[in-house]
């Protein structure tokens, strides 16, 4: 079983990203992670590498390069065609033990959440799950804290030579954010929820320059305890909240007349070409499906416009939408916390205001 020796941290170099693909297509979160990984690699002055597992998947390499990878370690085998914990964990741990990356990022998809802890345990290192911010550069981390926390950062002592990956994530039920480091073991491993990191623009020059490395690895049928006999896709079409440009989100504020609340929210979303989402209350009350939940335990979204209808703006909700380009809040309580982060706030009854907004959008569209 591979095990990374923790006594020589200096032997570890480069930032790695697990490039999750399913049926020959990259998961969107991989491109977000590469973009974030690029910043970390630049700060450390090292390479950004992808590790791509599958069967006949090397056509994906240039896309990975275009989003920042300098190199991609491609591990191909018919036994890696479909994800299995045993096969993927074995190959990743073998290659990682050999190549010794300093940082290893994995998307917190269902597969990533299964794979990450398994690899971390085998490599005898630490993993911080569900990170929302990552830094290696202490000055940048201090800047992040100055903006995102109530700490008196200027009154604290900082070691500017510290190269540990600072992994920030919600803790204690989302009531505070914690930054975690893994000082004695490598790689520092982190899973990151889809949609949290921003994708950088594609670069054709980077795509053309990306190098393929084919590491040696051993894998045979005996390494697999499970066999995938069929991949069945769910019939229900999941909504693409993360990719939506316009989101109209409802909260408990529609409880007076849920049917009408959802109807007017949908009319506004349709007029904008957007999607209806909700706070956890809207999901827990059964008004909307779970794939429409925005927030810490739902999805992290970054649309052009996020319209919050009857949502108070609890910290767990804000965690999933506060980076939207423009936030419009409609709430009858003028002191609702959502107004603190809203670009435009309308104080009043959403049942009266939303139809007027829809009408305004309709008119604006006809006049253009
Ligand atoms: P409320 O907080 O009850 O707010 C309703 C708002 O509607 C009020 O501000 C009220 O003034 C306004 N209102 C009422 N009637 C009207 C009207 N007619 N017109 C206009 N405004 C009106 N929450 C999430 O959303 N997403 C998450 O992922 C999430 N994860 C969580 C994880 C943990 C571990 C915990 C502990 C909580 C989590 N929560 C999450 C729950 C969160 O703390 C809040 O309870 C929730 O976001 C509140 O939802 P809300 O704003 O719809 O309801």
Explain what you see:
By secondary structure, the protein is α/β, with parallel strands linked by helices. It folds into 2 domains: 9-223, HUPs (Rossmann fold), CATH 3.40.50.620; 246-367, TPP-binding domain (Rossmann fold). Helices cover 31% and strands 21% of the residues. It contains 11 helices and 17 strands. Strands 7-11-6-1-4-5-12 form a 7-stranded parallel beta sheet. A 5-stranded parallel beta sheet has the order 14-13-15-16-17. A 3-stranded antiparallel beta sheet has the order 8-9-10, covered by helices on one side. Helix 3 packs across helix 4 (110-123) and helix 7 (258-272) packs parallel to helix 11 (350-366). It is globular. The model has no long low-confidence stretch (mean pLDDT 93). Bound molecules: flavin-adenine dinucleotide.
């Amino acid at each position: 079983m591979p095990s990374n020796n923790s006594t020589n941290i200096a032997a570890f170099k480069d930032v790695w990203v697990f490039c999750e693909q399913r049926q020959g297509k990259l998961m969107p979160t991989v491109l977000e992670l590469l973009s974030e990984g690029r910043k970390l690699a630049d700060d450390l002055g090292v390479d950004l590498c992808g590790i791509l597992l599958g069967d006949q998947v090397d056509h994906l390499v240039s896309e990975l390069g275009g989003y920042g990878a300098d190199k991609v370690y491609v591990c191909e085998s018919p036994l890696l065609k479909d994800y299995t914990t045993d096969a993927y964990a074995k190959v990743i741990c073998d290659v990682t033990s050999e190549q010794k990356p300093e940082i290893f990022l994995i998307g917190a998809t269902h597969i990533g959440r299964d794979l990450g802890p398994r690899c971390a345990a085998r490599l005898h290192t630490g993993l911080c799950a569900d990170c929302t911010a990552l830094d290696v550069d202490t000055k940048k981390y201090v800047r992040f804290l100055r903006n995102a926390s109530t700490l008196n950062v200027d009154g604290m002592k900082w070691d500017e030579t510290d190269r540990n990956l600072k992994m920030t994530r919600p803790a204690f039920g989302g009531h505070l954010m914690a930054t975690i480091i893994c000082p004695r073991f490598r790689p520092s491993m982190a899973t990151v929820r889809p949609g949290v990191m921003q994708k950088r623009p594609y670069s054709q020059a980077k795509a053309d320059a990306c190098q393929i490395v084919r590491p040696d690895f051993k894998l045979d049928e005996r390494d697999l305890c499970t066999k995938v006999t069929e991949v069945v896709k769910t019939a229900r079409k999941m909504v693409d909240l993360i990719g939506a440009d316009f989101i109209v989100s409802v909260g408990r504020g529609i409880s007076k007349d849920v049917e009408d609340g959802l109807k007017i929210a949908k009319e506004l979303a349709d007029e904008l070409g957007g999607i209806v989402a909700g706070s956890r209350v809207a999901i827990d009350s059964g008004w909307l499906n779970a794939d429409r939940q925005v927030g810490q335990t739902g999805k992290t979204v970054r649309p052009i416009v996020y319209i919050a209808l009857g949502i108070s703006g609890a910290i767990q909700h804000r965690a999933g939408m506060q980076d939207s380009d423009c936030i419009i809040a409609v709430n009858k309580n003028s002191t609702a916390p959502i107004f603190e982060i809203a670009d435009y706030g309308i104080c009043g009854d959403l049942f009266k205001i939303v139809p007027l907004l829809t009408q305004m959008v309709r008119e604006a569209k006809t006049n253009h």
